[in-house]
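S1.2 Input.
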Amino acid sequence: MDRDQKLGLIYQVFSPSAPIEDAELFIGRIGQISKIRDAISERGQHAVMYGGRGVGKTSLSNVMSTMYSDMMVLKITCNRTDDFRSIWEKALSKISVFFDTKKIGYQSESESQAIELSLPDKQFIDPSDIEQIVSSIQSPMLFIFDEFDSIEDRTTKMMMSDMLKSFSDNLPQVTLLIVGIGQSVDELLGDHPSLERCIKQVFMPLMSKEETAELIANSLEMLDLEIEEPVLNKIIEISSGFPHYTHLLSKFATREAISDDFGMVNDDHLQVAVRESIDNSSYSIRADYERAIAMGKNENQFKNVILACALVNASEKWTTTKFILGKYCALINTDTKIESIQYNLGMLCKAERGEILVKNGKSEYQFRNPLMKAFVKLNSFNQF
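S1.3 Output.
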């Protein structure tokens, strides 16, 4: 493979801006894939996949939709204006049912006609209407409703819960996979104890260090490249389990190595990748971070407090001031009291400082946008 071929392949191997669609490029998540497969294989079972922002839920749902050639798979992306009718209109519009009809006349051949499915023309529809329509299709079906968390209508959530139970009881050949941001199934669908028997709960965590290392190693193998171990470890640390930043850093680092005709990704290539990744991060994250560290007498302290928050190994959970203080003291190499950072933490929860942190009633903190954790580490790359 020559240099131009490798440079072209980079954009297939690494996809920081869009979810992965090719199963061959999807790495890890074995436990989650297994649970969803179990739900699809078991009659009357459904699955709800939930987790934090940017952990790869859409990529996994895309990959699941390509794994089943023996069933009809329909993926629907929800939005905040959707209700029960609109999401099922989207779903049914993707289905074409073919019927064989025989022409009039002796020895005439039959021809296949496509009939589009549609909802009944009435003001209100309910799960029984959907069930009646879908029951006309005999083949196994998988409906994937992605970004379900964006739906704001509570009635829609309640009706989708009823839909799950109705399909489980009456259409066991049909599986629903509901995907969205949340820390529990209740956040997506509400509290419905009767659903427990018919759904598999699939939590999607941040990528583990092992999964991140495997993603990078497998991708570099496709490009006929290797990577220095310290560089690999830095990418793992900075990306913090978010596939987006793993892909972003790896894309720019490998592009630099290939452009230099190097077979090994080294620290110089990573230096370039960090600068490029900062410039190519989302505008909102960059703007919030710049606002958070805006000029003032405590500019360096704000930077260090934010970095201390990013360095706390708390995944997506809330973290206490005590743990943040421990990381902060390690950064400035001086012991100090909690009171010295409480002002900064409070200000970082306000709009004038980008509101990059949120605080709960227990005086615990987390990043409002979880991806900020990796972006902060990017900006502090030379401190690793």
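S1.4 Remarks. The chain has a mean pLDDT of 87.
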